[in-house]
């Protein structure tokens, strides 16, 4: 299983239970993406309003393809849609550097 390395950057709110967090990462095009969902979707660590942020987490992802760019040797196209996630902009597919992926 592959995970996209991200950071929980903050607490959004206690509702719906058990609470929402904001997760952020930067893609290969230097665009920052934000996802918001219940904290257990992203972390097994119990997160709450007073947690020390940022917290490094991994988002389970599917590999759609790979290639190269002029800047990076290895670019991977991923999807988080099968896991019910999307960015605040409604995107669920992203191009990231291969070194942003971790196994678990």
Brief synopsis:
The protein has about 100 residues and is mostly beta strands. It is about 5% helix and about 50% strand.
Give the overall shape, derived from the CA principal axes.
elongated
SSE string: EEEHEEEE
Average pLDDT for all residues: 93
Main pleated-sheet profile: 7 strands, antiparallel
Q: Please mark out the parts with pLDDT under 50 across 5 or more consecutive residues, or reply none.
A: none
Strand percent estimate: over 45%
Work out the helicity level: under 10%
Give me the secondary-structure category. mainly beta
Structure summary, number of beta strands: 7
Radius of gyration over C-alpha positions, nearest whole angstrom: 14 Å
H/I helix tally: 1
Distance between the termini: 6 Å
